[in-house]
Amino acid sequence: MLTWLTTIVAFGVVLAMLGIANERKERALQFVLSLPLSPGDYVRVKLFGLFLCYLVPWVILSAGAVVLLLVRPNLPDGLLPFAVLLSGFMLANFSVVLCGALHTASEGVMTIVIIVTNMNVTLFIFMVGGVPSLHDHLRAAAPVWNDSFWIVLAVEAATLLIALSLPYFVAARRRDFI
Amino acid sequence: MTHPKHIEMRSVRKAFRFFTLEDLSLDLEPGQIMGFVGPNGAGKSTSIRLMTGLLTPDAGEVRVLGHAMPDEQAIAKRDIGFVSDDMRLFAHASVGWHMQFVASIYPGWDPQYAKALVKRFNLRTEQNVSGLSSGEHVKAVLMLALARRPRLLILDEPTSGLDPVARHEVLTEFMDVLRDEDRSILFSSHNTVDVERISDRITFIDRGRLVDSNDKETFLDRWRRIQLQLPAGATLPDLPHVISRVVDGQFVTLTTNHFSQDLIAFLGSNVREVHRMSLEEIFAANEHAHPQTDRQRVLHPPLAHHRHHGCRIRRFGHRHRR
Amino acid sequence: MLYIHSMYSGINISQTDARPMYLQIMEQIRARIVAGDWPAGRELPSIRALAAALSVSVITIKRAYLDLESEGVIVTRHGKGSFVAEVNGLAGELQTEKLDEHLAAAAGIGRQLGLTPDELAERLRRATRTLDKK
User: Fold this and answer.
1) Scanning every residue of chain B, which has its alpha carbon at the shortest distance from the alpha carbon of C60?
2) Which among B9, B296, C79, C110 is least surrounded, fewest beta carbons within 10 Å?
């Protein structure tokens, strides 16, 4: 479980960092911006490109987790809603990191964003895992899709949407680069 | 048939916390090279970034190749080669990779010319960018820009860090670009010797303002250093267009930025020598006349005229700005 | 040993020379015309080609060609290019120019010595007489 989490977090961080902060840091950004595109194009391409890059391992790992749950007899299917929420959380988390990377050139801010989102994972597990309406059904043999589940999923989806659209409206509209 | 100007800046203003670029106007016609000079911090890089769409002006207009910047920069940049000395390529890729990358984006890429440039600039296509020295890096970026044969080249300190041979090669390539009267170059450089040699126009900015923008020959023609020997006891009256006066006993050296035969006629037989000034000397003279700090550069007790002249000329300079 | 044979490989523009670049170019073109290397009617390199060959700004070459044309040394036919002028009393002109240069230098030294123009002229007459004696 831990390895799975670490992998998926690491992917996200590495992608975001390498993709953006490095460019700015290494001043290859000037070279990229000398190409026939607008800074807005650049932000949008980075946003969707990196998001898609993350999506691939995310889909694989999430699907893998779901399959594992369904296939392994010693793992109760009641864990399924939780697994889905956790996967959703990872995706939303990544988009927050991505959003942060696109808006700030400061390494300090990025470091804070990464630390906070990483800590969030543990927080999420304990908080959501502690919610009685979810917690009680974890060991059930069949998955329970109750309201708590949908609420958490909705929050995750909202976070995802905001994090992905913010760069569209803020970073891409920035008038001064460098 | 009218040929649109390649660069047009009209009363551009850009304010930062500690620096403001004020009322900058300049023009670059096709078939010209413009040398963009000024002391450090004068606003050259800011101006260049305004031209390439990386900054948006607070006031005024920027048009490059007829396109409004920064809004139409994606189209404009198809035909602009921008090279800056602090620009970096992707560290983990090779020179050759970059050539393929650029070739796939720009239809104007000339593979033969690229190969010739690689050879001339002493580069190796297989070499990783991270292994390049700073001089080689600049040459690589220049090669990538030149091989596309863009109509306009905007270069920020393109020869910085280059050894004399490399500099000569690069300048030769620039002049080669100018064989085509539909292509033009704007380059900023601290190397006043090179600027003086190959520029058709010189634009001089200082502390965020335009000092002068003119044909090179006109520009250089206007500056002179005049050495006088005054008869004992005589003093020189206030003279217009004289921006500095250095007194050493009977010997006086005047620097003027608006030379005319009238001035020589007025000074009469006191004149010993009249020298043209190199761009470097003009640079230094301008700095002395309007010092950043309050230094006084006379060999004898200062004349009150010194700074007085400076003030007057400043205003005059404003009137003459295009 | 490096051997280069080409039309303008010998033209050298020095930036450390006190004279402006366009004057140096004019001088070197005139020298070739007088020597006969560039005969009457021969087409001059295009302004841009010469500029690129010498790594000197187009505007400087333009100025040189313009001034050479006003001197009658070359002729520019609109749209066709510039050519060495047919009739050239250049040799004499060049000599006169040289004389003027020497006289200007003499005048400068004369001033430093504090000679009046008459005294200077007297010395020149003396020099001419010395020549005649030889």
Assistant:
1) B217
2) C79
Q: Do chains C and B touch (3 or more CB pairs under 8 A)?
A: yes
pTM assigned to the model: 0.78
Q: Which residues pair with B15 in a beta bridge?
A: B20
* Residue B253 DSSP SS3: strand
A2-16 vs A39-71: helix crossing angle, rounded to 10? 170
Provide the residue count of chain B: 322
Q: What is the pLDDT of residues A49-63, one digit of tens each?
A: 888 888 888 899 888
| Residue pair A4/A61 in contact by the 8 Å Cβ criterion | yes
Count CB neighbours of B169 within 10 A: 18
Beta carbons of C59 and B216 less than 8 Å apart:
yes
* Separation between Cα atoms, residue C105 and residue C98, nearest integer Å: 11
Q: How far is CA A36 from the centre of its chain?
A: 30
A17 min Cα distance to partner chain B (Å)? 15
Structure tokens at A51: 């998001």
At A133-177, the pLDDT tens digits run 777 777 777 777 888 888 888 988 999 999 888 888 887 777 777
B74 vs A39: CB contact, 8 Å cut-off? no
Backbone torsion region of residue B77, taken as left when φ is above 0, otherwise alpha when ψ lies between -120 and 50, otherwise beta: alpha
Tokens of A16: 């975001």
Residue A19 and residue A53: Cα distance in Å, rounded?
A: 10
Question: In A91-171, which ranges are E strands?
Answer: none
Q: pLDDT of B74-132, one tens digit each?
A: 999 999 999 998 899 988 889 999 999 999 999 999 999 999 999 999 999 999 999 99
How far apart CA C39 and CA C28 sit, in angstroms, is 14
Using CB atoms, which residue from B172, B181, B200 is nearest to C57? Answer: B200
- Sign, CA torsion A65/A66/A70/A75: positive
Closest residue, chain B, to C52 (C-alpha)? B175
Q: Is C14 helix (H, G, I), strand (E, B) or coil?
A: coil
- Helix A107-130 to helix A2-16 angle (10° resolution) is 150
Predicted-complex ipTM score = 0.79
pLDDT at A16: 60
Helix, coil or strand: residue B174: helix
Structure tokens at A18: 């390498």
Nearest-CA distance from C49 to chain B in Å?
A: 6
Q: Does B178 touch chain C (CB under 8 A)?
A: yes
The counts of H helices and E strands in chain A are: 8, 0
Containing A67, the helix (H) or strand (E) segment is: helix A39-71
Instruction: Provide the terminal-to-terminal Cα distance of chain B, rounded to the nearest Å.
Output: 24
pLDDT at residue C14 in the model = 87
CA distance C30 to A63: 85
- Determine the average pLDDT of the residues in C33-55: 90
Average pLDDT over residues C99-124: 89
C-alpha A117/C-alpha A17 separation (Å) is 14
CB nearest A176 (choices: B56, B77, B105):
B56
Q: Which residue has the higher pLDDT, B305 or B130?
A: B130
Residue C75 and residue C69: Cα distance in Å, rounded?
6
Q: Read off the pLDDT of residues A7-25 as tens digits, 9 standing for 90 and up.
A: 665 666 666 655 555 555 5
Question: Alpha helices of chain B — where are they, by DSSP H?
Answer: 44-51, 73-76, 95-105, 111-120, 134-146, 164-177, 192-198, 216-221, 261-267, 279-289, 305-319
- Run of H or E including C30: helix C21-35
Q: B305 and B238 in contact (C-beta within 8 Å)?
A: yes
